[in-house]
Amino acid sequence: xxxxxxxxxxxxxxxxxxxxxxxxxxxxxxxxxxxxxxxxxxxxxxxxxxxxxxxxxxxxxxxxxxxxxxxxxxxxxxxxxxxxxxxxxxxxxxxxxxxxxxxxxxxxxxxxxxxxxxxxxxxxxxxxxxxxxxxxxxxxxxxxxxxxxxxxxxxxxxxxxxxxxxxxxxxxxxxxxxxxxxxxxxxxxxxxxxxxxxxxxxxxxxxxxxxxxxxxxxxxxxxxxxxxxxxxxxxxxxxxxxxxxxxxxxxxxxxxxxxxxxxxxxxxxxxxxxxxxxxxxxxxxxxxxxxxxxxxxxxxxxxxxxxxxxxxxxxxxxxxxxxxxxxxxxxxxxxxxxxxxxxxxxxxxxxxxxxxxxxxxxxxx
Length: 365
Hints:
By secondary structure, this protein is mainly alpha-helical. It is built from 15 helices and no strands. The protein is globular.
């Protein structure tokens, strides 16, 4: 199999992995259903405010697991972290479908976060090895899958859980019990999807092999192998080996980038965890909220491709600072804009535009 073919397959496999871990985005929509389910099944103590912390908690865990995933890949190879990720996704959603115990729920969301973080960067780095001069485009393609996953799975979730588009009860703030119980059917279906796509992604991903690349006698790959800039296939070591990974953990830029990633993701986490609950409190209109989310997820996915292409043309620092400034501006004014339905719908696109930037810029850097 030619190296370029393996590269294309690896991009597709990485995109499939990111569709799975991108299921995180649907929890902004699912949380009100799940809270209603808990309300009717022996755990009414969890409040709406507390439930909105679940998605930021998952994001904190997966952000903290990104470096762990790269290290695990360097020591164990690419397949094992990807397999563990798929296993954790299955186990976490299984626990959520079987238990209402708050400790198990927290543990399952922690497993979910680790399952997202382990393969997140590793599959991107592997794909970069095949196309070293198209880093921005590659990360744009893969992270578009991560962002678009919420749109695809959200449509499935609404069809399974709430096919009639009923809104929450204005008096209780919860969905009816029949609708709330449908969350179990969706979680079981999602587990099946994870198994199917997970197996397919493992088949598609091909760890980069520098020896094969050199045999191709391509100028681009010869330059890649000579410089040893990317990962070596046999060890999956980034930037030249395990020693350099250790040096990286001790360096200032690593922690600066980690802090930047946490900071820039803060706005995204707040938006994902609160857009449904906030919308239900303000509008009580299921159709409006649903359409808003659909547009946001499509825009969030498409804009990632846009930012990936921009990163091949402009300095990442300039793009990052601009996106952070615009995120602060949009979030600080959203409360006032949200009082006008039409403007809040359009404003949602601006939030998607600038939120999608940071998740592309930081891994690229």
